[in-house]
Design a protein that fits this description.
three-stranded mixed β-sheet; alpha/beta; globular; 191 residues; 53% helix; 23% strand; four-stranded mixed β-sheet; single chain; 8 helices; Histidine-containing Protein, Chain: A; 7 strands
Length: 191
């Protein structure tokens, strides 16, 4: 499988140089990730459904939508909510909306009580995520398709189904990346 890693690394490098890192990291790698994913195909589809239903529910709730910047990521039924919302009450409402979605096993609400972030802040987070994914792809002792990387305010969240050795290596690579303020593991361990 090293050939796939090198191909992805090459594509990511080219796209970063062209300013399209987000498109390749989140979209282009999806097909290869599905083949390589430790989740069942049904779980991958469930996670996509959870993310879609969460986006729809939160967008439909104008009180939440107008006062928040939200990102919802699901991995094997474990949901991570990142971003900003104006009050603790809204944060709790968001958690309740997500918990009500079928097949959600657990919710990690990492929302910050603050005004919604500006685009430059989000661009910096996207850049950090891209750098980490590139580093994970180039590491010979870890498979980047087992790990989902989400960055918000310089805090990097790592999700996936991994061994403890893989988790430790991913944290080591992530923590040594420029711009990373903190690393939070939301892994499911296989050992």
């Amino acid at each position: 499988m090293p050939n796939i890693k090198y191909i992805v690394l090459l594509i990511v490098s080219i796209m970063i140089l062209q300013g399209c890192a987000t498109a390749i990291v989140t979209g282009g790698a999806t097909g290869a990730a599905l083949i390589h994913d430790r989740r069942s195909t049904g779980s991958v589809i469930d996670d996509q459904g959870i993310e879609f239903k969460a986006s729809y529910a939160l967008f439909s709730n104008k009180e939440i939508y107008n006062q928040s910047h939200l990102n919802v990521t699901s991995y094997n039924g474990i949901v991570l909510i990142t971003g900003e919302t104006l009050t603790e009450e809204l944060k709790q409402k968001i958690t309740a909306e997500i918990k009500a979605i079928p097949k959600v096993r657990r919710v990690h609400n990492e929302l910050i009580i603050a005004a919604p972030s500006a685009l430059p802040s989000r661009s910096s987070d996207t850049w950090i995520t891209s750098k980490i994914k590139t580093k994970l792809t180039s590491a010979s002792d870890i498979d980047p398709f087992y790990i989902k990387v989400i960055t918000e305010h310089g805090v990097v969240y790592l999700m996936g189904m991994v061994t403890r050795a893989e988790a430790n290596r991913a944290v080591e690579i992530t923590a040594s990346s420029a711009g990373v303020q903190r690393v939070i593991k939301i892994f499911e361990y296989l050992d």
